[in-house]
Write a structure and sequence with these properties.
6-stranded antiparallel beta sheet, mainly beta
Amino acid sequence: MKKSLLAILSLVSLTSCIYDFKADIEEASRYAIVEGDIQVGGITTVSYTWAGSTNVQVVASVEGEDGTVVTGEKDSGICTVDTRALDPAVRYRLRVQDLENDAVYVSSWEDVQPAPVLDSLGYTIHDNVMDLKATFHSDTGMPYYCLAYREQWEYRSYATTYLQFVEPLKPSPTGGRELFPDPLSGLGYEYGRIFYMDDLIPYHTCWAYPGRGRTEVVTAGAMATNKMENYTFKTIENEDLRTSVKYRVMVVVRMLSQNTYDYWKSMDDVSSQTGDLFSPVPSLRRGNIVNEAQPDALVLGYIGASRVASSELWISAQDVDFYRQPASIQKMLEDDALGKREPFGVAMEDMYRQYKRGYRPWLMVTPSSGATIPETYYVWIKERCLDCRIEGGTTTKPDGWE
């Protein structure tokens, strides 16, 4: 099967083909960029940028040749329009009003592309990587597709602890009991305090769900069946936290018209052109959007209309033995923890300094019988090993999480 990856795109939503344009274009800040395919039977998301900013107040509407008008909410840069009830037999166009710059942009009338068939989602594992694959086809329409996906995953901190350090002059936490300093030691609170909490320090389970996904434009070429068989759209390494607990990927596939395909191919040519120092800079191909008041003004983007096929894939570490904790983290936990190689652990007068350096108490160790050191001493590790949020996630579970 012939297949060609034409472009790597950025998503504002799962249903929009939004191009990561990287060409060095003079006066690029004067261009308006309007993107967001009309999704008949779903929610249409529109992205609008002017002068490099996404904070411009805009209102987006989808108009049908039968007189239908559906308007979204006013928003900054990104708008959503409820197009679930639209008739796929009607042609549509997008209208975007820039309220701050008093400009109106409209796209050309577009036929609604039929929905493809998303046959399956799956994965294969080889050489310490996992390839996510999709099989999809179309019985009608052109052999051009836009595949978009968005990810969510649950993960844990690399270590857990019941110990909480409290800085000097800070109030005591709720719950738990004070371990350091020992009341009989005669020490004050100038070195801070350590509490043994009733529950694990809470930042050990997180979820990551980036707001932006990824999009790829692919073609089945001249194949009579217009089918993409086991197309690899994502590769995950075995040290990636995505598969450490549970992973979810949501995939949407839609058909592209010939004009839409040609537009994205030309944009890819501009972005990836190579040549010698004297090669001419290729000219930008106009999309199907115009400024009503200034038709000659350059507007980037292409608005299509389509129905989509969607599905999702769940991968659980309980079912798939794939994830491996990075060796650097394991070494940090086993060998590089502060105080682990010291007979007295982290010195009392050094605790606050280590806390300011980003270390946290991890283990409380009781010495062997007959020792003359205090009854307990402490091993400290970097906070990033104990707080899952530092990896960019949140403790808020995403909607629909199993």
